[in-house]
């Protein structure tokens, strides 16, 4: 952390992808809300949608088009089953993929879940100046993704570089 920089709070939207979760049972989405608010960011919106690529894409597209939403974090739908479609829903929307996110997520998850991490299709990228992170649905995976990767990259004080300092240049041509 750089002491000569001030923290910049961001507006972050959280999307839970699940066929079974409700507002009361959405542990992962609620955990992400708590973590981002404890870090000093603002919850822009929180939605739960079924594991359907068109529902996912509809909500994420709305947030990408909203200038007040700077970051989207999804939880769920990143596995291998027939209903897991978050990467397929989000990837076509991305202007650029942040390949290192999925790679690092799986490396860090290996310490917790071993070779089961190869089943994770965590992905991240940027679309219309909005950063998007797609995490698995387990609360542990969300906590790891936030605390070990996302939180420091969404903190302007992180050196040598972070995603926040790139935001003013994301629309450069």
TrEMBL record:
Pfam families: MoCF_biosynth. This is Molybdenum cofactor biosynthesis protein B. SMART domains: MoCF_biosynth. One of its GO terms (biological process) is Mo-molybdopterin cofactor biosynthetic process. May be involved in the biosynthesis of molybdopterin. Keywords: Molybdenum cofactor biosynthesis. Pathway: Cofactor biosynthesis; molybdopterin biosynthesis. PROSITE patterns: MOCF_BIOSYNTHESIS_1. The gene is moaB_2. It comes from Candidatus Thiodiazotropha endolucinida. Residues 13-157 form the MoaB/Mog domain. Belongs to the MoaB/Mog family. One of its GO terms (cellular component) is cytosol.
């Amino acid at each position: 952390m750089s002491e000569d920089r001030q923290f910049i709070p961001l507006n972050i939207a959280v999307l839970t992808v699940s066929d079974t979760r409700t507002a009361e049972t959405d542990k992962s989405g609620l955990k992400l809300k708590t973590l981002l608010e404890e870090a000093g960011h603002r919850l822009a919106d929180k939605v739960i949608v079924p594991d359907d690529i068109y529902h996912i894409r509809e909500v994420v597209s709305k947030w990408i088009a909203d200038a007040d939403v700077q970051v989207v974090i999804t939880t769920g739908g990143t596995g291998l089953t027939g209903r897991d479609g978050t990467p397929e829903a989000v990837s076509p929307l991305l202007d650029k993929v942040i390949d290192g996110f999925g790679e690092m997520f799986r490396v860090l998850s290996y310490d917790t879940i071993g070779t089961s991490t190869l089943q994770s299709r965590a992905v991240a990228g940027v679309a219309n100046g909005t950063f998007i992170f797609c995490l698995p649905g387990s609360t542990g995976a969300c906590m790891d993704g936030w605390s070990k990767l996302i939180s420091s990259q969404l903190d302007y004080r992180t050196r040598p570089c972070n995603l926040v300092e790139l935001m003013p240049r994301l629309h450069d041509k």
